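Lecture 7, part B: from sequences to assemblies.

Below are the input chains for today's worked example.
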Amino acid sequence: MELKVKNLSVLSGKEQIVKNISFSLNENEIVALVGPSGAGKSTILRSLNRLADKESGLKVEGEVLYDGKNIFTSYSLNELRRKIGLVFQKPCVFPGSIYKNVLFGIRHHKSLKKSEADDLVESMLKKSHLWREVKDRIYKSANILSLGQKQRLAFARTLATDPDILLLDEPTSSLDPYSTHEIEQVLLELKQNKSILLVTHLLQQGKRISDRVLFISSSNGPGEIVEEGTVSEIFDNPKNNETKIYFQNS
Amino acid sequence: MRYYFRISKDICFKSFSLISALLTFGILALGLWLIVLKGFSAVSFDFISSSMSQGGLSGGILYQIIGTFILIFTVLLIVSPLSVGIALLRSFYLKNDKSRKIFTTFLYVINGIPSIIFGIFGFFLFVKFFGWGKSWLTGGILLSMMILPTVSLSLSEGISRIPKDYIESAKSLGLSSSAVIFSVVLPQSFSSFISGLLLGLARAAGETAPLLFTATIFSGADIPGGIKESPILSLPYHIFTLAQESYQPQALENAWGSVFVLILIVVFFSALALPFRLKSHEEANV
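Predicted structure of the full complex, as structure tokens:
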């Protein structure tokens, strides 16, 4: 499914956080959203999942089309959030077992027989590259997992709701290189049937796994996308001055 | 010079804190010691399993204990759902800080109202206006009103300690607000709720003033069969009446025994609350 963002602006009171954001996220591609801290990258992700307007009280203007329909008017919140999944920077593990965590979201959307639930847990943990490490303790508390494992569990939990689009807010920023590598492999595999918008500070990660890059800057006020292109266009031959300076200093 | 001044200031504050703590615990320990000393000898199996006779000079306190527990369970049934509703209203449905502050202040004000005022209010509303006469239900309702702020605020604090990430993660998975409340908020703040509830019940168990002219009598009641004109016996009122007859040694001894049993009930609820309180602090530090 395709996601089209047209002239998206987000305001906190009268202050604009981001303005006139337009881009599209095509099927089977990973788009990296990069830029300095405070430019509004997370705000954009939270707007696409409607956390910004519904939970944080921000005002969102513009149009976001998912499957050709406006997300603000044509979808219920539950349906939208199930189809546009969001994985946060800090992995959040709910109290209870690994098994329960994987099913945490989906069991609120549909009832599953025990065998269906078992299969789903196994398949999601495999997709998240976690099955091998936890298959003998899926009924044990998820709290004992390492940070990297918790993040992969968060992926498994989001994937269990079968989203078409994944929004990832710096999912590897607090992880070690091994866990980061594991998650990048997961993303490359997920790309086969999902669209992924990835906010990252790790430029090398953007180079390694993304197909296109959006550079956002807030040097002139609210965050704006100042440059967009393929990985080689943006990383090797940036045209915008702010993009150049950012990459030179990173 | 400045160094010595700072050191002596530190010592002064430390000594003041220590003396305050010792004074508080000392008075409490003295009270408890006196109750155990005087009350323990009066308590026997007969004392807690037989009903009162001769106007409290002999017999036991069986129906006073039962009455106290009837009040406690009535309070439990009334306060549990209401406090959850109030805490959720305060934490989720009051959108701006100003209305939340006003609401919180209102709860603290109710918490600070002297218990006799609840008694007077209950007397005019339930006993007179509704025509219930003295009733165990009036007592339960009034005690519930008294402890409702304590339990609601304890639960609200528990809810406010839940990391925002939990709630947002759940919402981002497409859970409705009610599903988030039942799957994340209430299970995560359960310890705070239970600890507030048990401390509230401990306070309710020892209250006399709201029950004086609304729910309890000194003698002539057992297990209530209805609501109207259905008073009960209760330990606080029993102690209050016997203490007024303290010139009679037997009455005084029974009063001490009743105090000992009441303290045991209060300590039981407070002790039961302790692990939940510790757990809620642990959760807050995760």
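Note for the exam: Residues 3 and 66 of chain A are 5 Å apart (CA to CA). Keep this in mind when comparing with the next example.
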